[in-house]
Write a structure and sequence with these properties.
2 copies of one chain form a homodimer. The two termini of chain A are about 40 Å apart. Chain A is globular. Chain A is α+β, with helices and mostly antiparallel strands and about 450 residues long. In chain A, helix 3 packs across helix 6. In chain A, strands 20-21-22-29-24-27 form a 6-stranded antiparallel sheet. Chain A has a 5-stranded mixed β-barrel with strand order 8-11-9-10-12. Chain A is built from 10 helices and 30 strands. The longest helix of chain A is centred in the N-terminal third of the chain and has 15 residues. Chains A and B meet through strand 17, strand 18, strand 19, helix 10 and strand 21 of A and strand 17, strand 18, strand 19, helix 10 and strand 21 of B.
């Protein structure tokens, strides 16, 4: 079985911890059963897949901006397919399917299960995925969906109306309805409808046939180059609603969307994370502090307080769904990111009226990791090394770096860096156009 | 008339805006009547003294740590006397009195009024000071106090129990009682007692005679050198309670101690300061943000949210008196200071287990201001200039600095800096002992 894990989302509903690069599935806040550690939603779902012994290979379909988070959190055990631009679920699933077919060489009968990376659920969910795999294997239908048992008449989800039984715990799908009003939803639930949890199973050839109606090239690379030719449409509309035979396998266990502070904090193991002081009189308050600054909460009730390099949030819990629209107005560059080579946080940013600006970051490079040989056209950089050991290359000249050393890298100077031990440094960028895309990379061999 | 303004306090009750260097009287949050500007408590009291036309010279008695704040906020219109160490109000008033006598040459009949720098009050308070001046001038008593009309039976203040009238709006003082319980306070108030607001008037010779019982030298400089010989005792205990004749002049107007977030926010002109976003549904919430990070408040009620480089506070308003004990546990170096040459804020601070640490500051030097010619024994510094124009001296070599320039200053290198226009730069300190006292100053003439 192949699992395509969809990892998308722009992530302002959990602002300031989530940002354009760090969607909610990357927040390391969830307790790991039987351990003191914390894991993110995407780490949790991969762990659950492994524990369910599904014998599946996982391919993550994601955007370029999330690629480094996936590598930092999941390592190289999963394959990654990046969309060149953000479109919708149908193009994303087509691209990943073409990757499995043309790049990995799986045959048209290979069974594929597509699932989101962020449901908060339990082991029964993964046993249901195994049942869906069997249902496709028995050719009961060309498309098999998971039906989630609704817990309230939500207007947020799509509903699956089941028809006649097709076997043990399997039904034909009578029809779909997207986001009904609460009264209609109530009626659907009485009639036995399910939520559509976005889990789909099919044979690989079924989907590549559909995909190739839009984009048909002999290699995966060519298909990826023409990604913009896929229509911007969801998988539900383009595939599920048009399928000739659709079956649903119900799942009756716990399933939650931890998409708002209110729902997420219900699942946290602790009330505070990071440098937090409280007076002990607070009630139903969660404080998550990713800054070095201390946070103090006195006598607070029903609040979420969250602080990160992107900003500081204080919200009444029941109103936390509303932060999205306000957070969108605050859009700034992401101030914290996990990269394949390590992490960085922005500690200072000043923009002057004439366009000159300065950005100060503290970076940590993982042992053995390196930053590619590169130059910038519009900015100077000053690196001051504060911990660890490493090697730097400046216009071809290579030398050791360690604590207290400072290196000035003017525009046009080629530079690369490699960590021997965890290497911390402060980078000050100055210039008129401080963007990540001001970068020209060159080959370099560390030997 | 001479006014001695007492400026002390360590300032954790308004944490995180107040810190060891920035006491509450330096927070620029109070509205200026008839203007959009904001002023601090100490700026407000100086403005009120000027507006009351008291024809008084002001001498601020303060600690060395507050001297730069006084200079930054009041300029050179006031004299400043700094205590070499913190003792109590009696030694502080003695030192300022000896300064007026021995350094400024005022005679023993000069009338002196001592007052705190942080009452929030109105013009009648300053008219009462003029009355106290007249009362001393008429030799009604050797010590004259202001009596504040109590508004509730507080256990926080000292009470003055008046005796027989000594003239228009003047009474003999029958006795003093420090911080009675609420029941006793209630009884005092019924009997016409006043709060002791810490305003005292006397002739200069009266106090220098008392002072010289403890420390008697011909020059002010020698007296200051022997400051430690003064007993650590309050003016109330050492002078007021022992005086042969004491009078009180009542003041019946508005008088408040804005010492907690709850009382301070009552007087603010706006509900938010700095980069703050709210959803408009909050009630009775004040947000003061001195960070560059955005603060977002959604649906908050009865809260104070305050953010500064020292930390982030979220407190239920009525409990804000309790922050002091928690803030004392969080003691860190001050992360924001106003200095005579400008301001700085700490943007990053990392301490490693082996004692090595790194401190990153953003500084702004005022035009014409300079940093003295100095060297450090235990730290290297890297300065990256990000705005403005100035001049630097490095081991005697002088050159211009401007945007984008970086200067490396190793241990033992002498350096000075002067701003031509407002000069912003980022300083990274690295070393094993990053303290302000690691500094050796040398003479340098900018010509």
């Amino acid at each position: 079985m192949q699992i395509i894990l969809l990892s998308g989302g722009s992530g302002t509903r959990l602002w300031p911890l989530s940002n354009d690069a760090r969607s909610k599935q990357f927040l390391r806040l969830l307790p790991v059963e039987g351990s003191d550690g914390l894991e993110s939603m995407v780490q949790r779902v991969i762990r659950q897949i492994q524990e369910a012994d599904l014998k599946a290979s996982v391919t993550v379909a994601t955007s370029v901006t999330q690629q480094d988070f996936i590598l930092a959190q999941l390592g190289t055990e999963v394959s990654i397919v990046t969309e060149p631009s953000r479109r919708d679920t149908f193009p994303a699933i087509c691209l990943a399917s073409e990757y499995l077919s043309k790049e990995k060489g799986y045959g048209e009968n290979e069974i594929v299960v597509v699932m989101p990376c962020d449901p908060y659920t339990e082991s029964g969910y993964f046993r249901t995925i195994a049942e869906m795999d069997k249902t496709v294997g028995k050719n009961v239908a060309e498309l098999v969906l998971m039906g989630i048992r609704p817990t309230y008449p939500s207007s947020k989800y799509g509903y699956i109306i089941p028809g006649q039984p097709l076997g043990e715990n399997t039904f034909a799908v009578h029809c779909f309805t997207e986001k009904p009003d609460a009264v209609t939803a109530e009626k659907f639930i009485e009639d036995g409808a399910f939520w559509n949890g976005g889990v789909f199973a099919f044979r690989l050839g079924y989907l590549t046939t559909i995909a190739e109606r839009y984009v048909n090239y002999p290699t995966f690379e060519e298909i990826r180059e023409h990604y913009g030719d896929f229509p911007k449409i969801s998988f539900d509309y383009e595939v599920a609603e048009k399928a000739k035979s659709v079956a649903v396998v119900p799942f009756y266990g716990e399933w939650k969307d931890l998409g708002t502070w209110n729902t997420l904090t219900d699942e946290l193991a602790r009330c505070s994370y990071g440098n937090v002081t409280t007076d002990g009189t607070g009630e139903n308050t969660h404080v998550i502090n990713e800054l070095d600054l201390p946070v103090m909460c006195i006598g607070t009730k029903n609040l979420v307080v969250a602080a990160s390099p992107d900003g500081i949030l204080v919200t009444e819990k029941s109103r936390s769904e509303e932060i999205k629209s306000f957070a969108n107005r605050l859009k700034r560059r992401p101030m914290y990111e996990e990269r394949r080579w390590g992490t960085y946080r922005v500690i200072d940013f000043v923009e002057y009226p004439d366009g000159f600006s300065t950005l100060t970051k503290r970076l940590i490079l993982n042992p053995g990791a390196s930053i590619s040989y590169q130059e910038h056209a519009c900015r100077d950089e000053v690196w001051t090394f504060i911990d660890g050991e490493g090697e730097i290359v400046l216009d071809g000249e290579r030398k050791r770096v360690n604590r207290g050393m400072t290196v000035y890298i003017p525009k046009g100077m080629r530079h690369a860096l490699r960590a021997v031990t965890p290497l911390s440094f402060i980078e000050i960028q100055t210039g008129s156009n401080l963007v990540e895309t001001d970068i020209t990379r060159y080959p370099f061999e560390w030997i």
